[in-house]
UniProtKB/TrEMBL annotation:
Protein name as it appears in the record: ISL3 family transposase
Pfam families from the UniProt entry: DDE_Tnp_ISL3
Database matches in NCBIfam families: transpos_ISL3 (NF033550)
Signal peptide: none
Domain Transposase IS204/IS1001/IS1096/IS1165 DDE residues, every copy: 160-374
Cross-referenced InterPro entries: Transpos_ISL3, Transposase_DDE
Length: 381
């Protein structure tokens, strides 16, 4: 019976013996559990002398240990501890166990369960009611582990990734700031504000040597981060994430395609073809199948994928020009061709309004994009 209770309660300390449930038949109310903590100490906790029959047992003392609910019932655990007396120094001390910290009444299992529940989006009062402890104890438990998750202000990795994430209602804004090590992909910290002033004040807490050690900052097209790098990280270059570069061109092309598609009636085969085969238009031109002939819905006859794309582009010169720009940007990013990318976005050709809007954004961030395409990015510290 004692081993069953030990398994249910998660007690691994072999020194806790004689475990009993005093009211196993009672359905309602807390489980009344008792146990004895008995062992022979190796030394005195006060003077540190080895126990050569100088430390004797000096009675028992009952302590209440708060435990997490067991079988959907709260457990009242009464732990009887041996009190020891040292003949050499005349001090007494209680038997200790890793099941509960010294001078504490909340079990370690309850503390770990409290930390696990703190990761959920629930209030501290709710966690306290579930574990049978006070909300102050929950806050104290969180603060006791704060030093383990607090970032070290004398170190920053050589390459940092910066981005935004959606946050909860308790944050200052709709989006929060997150940054991580670009080499190990380990999360460093999350901030509830992403304004330039807040980020500058946060990173200025780091030592000057730590900020000077940062060589690369990988980010999206947010205008805040290049300014932050200029003010806070003097030796860092801003590298634009290549995904956002391609995505910007894809969004511009899709907006052009949708506008041209809506110029036709929904019953028109051209409308249906542009709506159905949009994925082929985003596919790299070199990956199109030019051998397999097959029938495509809404268009008569058989044709290959590249022939289908050519026919779709023939619907509008604007769509064709936007497609050429998209394919050039995708090729330049894939092959890291700086000349092709620069000539594509700086071409004086009259593109669609949607495509030109996104090309303007790429021109503004051209230096950061060139850093992403360059193979000479310093990644060593």
């Amino acid at each position: 019976m004692s081993n069953i209770i030990r398994t249910l309660l998660g007690i691994e300390d072999p020194h806790i013996k004689k475990l009993k449930i005093m009211n196993p038949v009672v359905v309602k109310g807390p489980l009344e559990i008792t146990g004895d903590l008995d062992y022979q100490p190796k030394k005195c906790e006060h003077c540190g002398r080895k126990n050569k029959k100088s430390v004797i047992k000096y009675g028992w003392r009952d302590t209440k240990v708060i435990m997490p609910p067991c079988m959907e019932r709260r457990g009242d655990f009464t732990l009887s501890r041996h009190n020891f007396y040292c003949k050499k120094c005349g001090h007494t001390f209680l038997a200790q166990t890793p099941f509960v910290q010294k001078s504490h009444t909340i079990s370690m299992k309850s503390r770990l369960l409290c930390l696990d529940k703190l990761t959920e989006t629930v209030s501290m009062k709710h966690i306290a009611s579930e574990l049978g402890i006070s909300s102050t104890s929950v806050m104290r438990c969180l603060r006791s582990y704060a030093k383990d998750i607090k970032p070290h202000l004398n170190y920053l990795p050589a390459a940092i990734c910066m981005d935004e994430i959606k946050t909860t209602k308790s944050s200052k804004g709709k989006m929060s700031f997150v940054f991580m090590d670009a080499m190990t992909h380990e999360l460093i910290d999350i901030l509830d504000s992403r304004t330039l002033h807040s980020l500058e004040r946060y990173f200025c807490r780091y030592t000057k040597a730590a900020r000077e050690a940062v060589r690369v900052i990988v980010t999206d097209m947010n205008y805040t981060y290049p300014k932050l790098a200029q003010w806070v990280f003097p030796n860092a270059i801003v590298v634009m994430d290549r995904f956002h570069v391609v995505n910007s061109a894809v969004v511009g092309f899709n907006q052009t395609r949708i506008r041209i598609m809506k110029d036709y009636a929904p019953s028109n085969p051209k409308y249906k073809a542009l709506k159905r085969y949009w994925q082929l238009l985003l596919k790299p031109n070199g990956h199109l199948n030019y051998k397999l002939w097959q029938h495509h819905t809404y268009l008569p006859g058989n044709r290959t994928e590249n022939m289908l794309v050519d026919e779709l582009l023939s619907f509008s010169p604007e769509l064709d020009s936007a497609y050429r720009v998209l394919q050039s940007i995708m090729t330049a990013i894939a092959t890291k061709d700086l000349e092709l990318f620069d000539s594509t976005i700086n071409d004086a050709f009259d593109y669609s309004e949607e495509m030109e809007r996104h090309l303007k954004t790429l021109r503004i961030n051209q230096n950061s994009i060139n850093n992403a395409l360059s193979t000479l990015i310093p990644m060593d510290r």
